[in-house]
Amino acid sequence: MSTTGPSVGPASDLGEIHNWTELLHFFNHTLPECHMELSEDTKRVALFVLYLAIFVVGLVENLLVICVNWHSSDRAGLLRPYVLNMAIADLGIVLSLPVWMLEVTLDYTWLWGSFSCRFTHYFYFVNMYSSIFFLVCLSIDRYVTLTNAFPTWQRHQHRGRRAVCMGVWVLAALIPLPEVVHIQLVDSFEPMCLFMAPFETYSTWALVAALSTTVLGFLLPFPLMVVFNVLTACRLRQAGQPEGRRHCRLVCAYITVFVICWLPYHVTLLLITLHGTHISLHCYLAHLLYFFYDIIDCFSMLHCVVNPILYNFLSPSFQGRLLNAVVHYLPKVQDREGRHASSSSSTQHSIVITKEGIQPPAAGPHHRV
Predict the structure, then answer these.
(1) Which of 95, 245, 252, 301 has the greatest number of C-beta atoms within 10 Å?
(2) Within 10 A of 114 (CB to CB), how many other CB atoms are there?
(3) Chain-wide mean pLDDT for the chain?
(4) What is the dihedral of CA 236, 136, 307, 87, to 10 degrees?
C-alpha cells in the first residue's frame, strides 16, 4: 500500500505555492484539464469486494499452510523454512486488508490516529518485502541444494536457512523506514494518511521512495527468480528426473504470477510519481492512472492467495501432510456405542462393494471407516 503520492506538477504552475495547504488547493481547483466519466462509487464497491475476497481466501489458505508446516518435522522438506516464513508474511499482508477496506469505504478518510497511520503502512511494507525476498531465497536455495554447488552450505544448511530467514526479516524491517518516517496524518478537510516529505524536496523524496520500491521489490528479485528457477528446471530435465516436466510448468507459473501481480503496480507507481516534474503524460492517461492505481495496488495482493496454491497445495508432500493433520484433529469416538455403530456401517458398506455371491468376513472394530 504505497503512499508515495504524485509529483506536484509543472514548475511554471507551482511558482506561487509555498505550503501544503496551497498545494492541496492547487490539486482541487487547477489540476484537472480534461473531464472523464469515471464512477468513484463503483470503484469503491469494486475495491471493497476485491479486498474482502482476498482477505477471506488468503486468511484460510495461509493459516492452513502455517499450521501444517509448523507441526511438520524438519524432514518434511529442506526448504520448509522459506515456505513457512513466506506464508507468515502473506498472512501479515492479509491481516492489514480490513484497514484498507474501511479506508476505501470511508473515501480515504483515516479515523485511527497518527500512530496507526504509520504503523499500518510499516507493517504492510515489512511483510510485502519479506514475502518477495523469501520467494527469491526459495528459488536460489532450491538450485543450490539440487546441484550441491556449495558443500559447506550442505553441511550447515539447517542453521544457514534459519539465519537467512532472520536476515530477511531484519532487512525487510529496515527498508521501509525512510518512507514510513514521512507518512503523516494530515488534517485538511478530512483526516488522511499521506506521504508528506519536506515540501521543498517532495518530488525528490517521492521519486526515491518509488524507485526503491520498484528496484527492491521487482527489478532485483525478478531476474534472480527467473534465472534460478529456469536453471533448476533445466537441471531436472537433463538428469531425466520424472518431475522435470512438472517443474517446468511450475516455473512458468511462478514467473507468470509474479509478473502479473507486480509489473502493473510498479509501472503505474513510477508513471504517477514521474508525472508533472520529470515526464508529461496526456491528460486522459494521467486520469486513468490516478483512477485505477488503487485497483492495481489491490490486484497486486493476489499473490497472497496464489502463493499458497503454487508453493504448497500443488505439492503431493503438502497434500499428504494436510490430510494427516485433518485426520489427526478429527474428533475421536470414545464410547463403545459409537464404535459399534461405526462397525455396523462398515459392514454394510463392505457388503455393497463385494462381488456378488461372495460372503464378506465378519466385521470387527478394526473395520471402521
Answers:
(1) 301
(2) 15
(3) 80
(4) 120
Cα angle value 211/215/217 (rounded, 5°): 110
d(CA 187, CA 29): 19
The β-bridge relationship of strands 183-187 and 191-195 is antiparallel
Residues pairing with 184 in the sheet:
194
CA–CA distance from 253 to each of 191, 193, 226, 317 (Å)? 42, 36, 11, 19
At residue 237, the pLDDT reads 80
Other Cβ atoms less than 10 A from the Cβ of 50: the count is 19
Grid cell in block for residue 184: 503523516
Who contacts 337 (Cβ-Cβ below 8 Å, separation ≥6)? none
**CATH superfamily, with its number, for domain 37-327:** Rhodopsin 7-helix transmembrane proteins (1.20.1070.10)
- Strand, coil or helix: what is 207? helix
Task: Give the mean model confidence (pLDDT) for residues 253-258.
Answer: 94
Taking the C-alpha atoms of residue 79 and residue 67, their distance in angstroms, rounded to an integer, is: 16
CB-hemisphere CA count at 13 Å for 27?
12
Using the predicted structure, report yes or no on whether residue 365 has a pLDDT greater than 70. Answer: no
DSSP-derived secondary structure for 265-329: HHHHHHHHHHBTTTB---HHHHHHHHHHHHHHHHHHTTHHHHHHIIIIIT-HHHHHHHHHHHHHH
> DSSP letter string over 122-182?
HHHHHHHHHHHHHHHHHHHHHHHHHHT--HHHHHTHHHHHHHHHHHHHHHHHHTTHHHHTT
Grid coordinates standing for 60? 484460510
pTM, 2 dp:
0.80
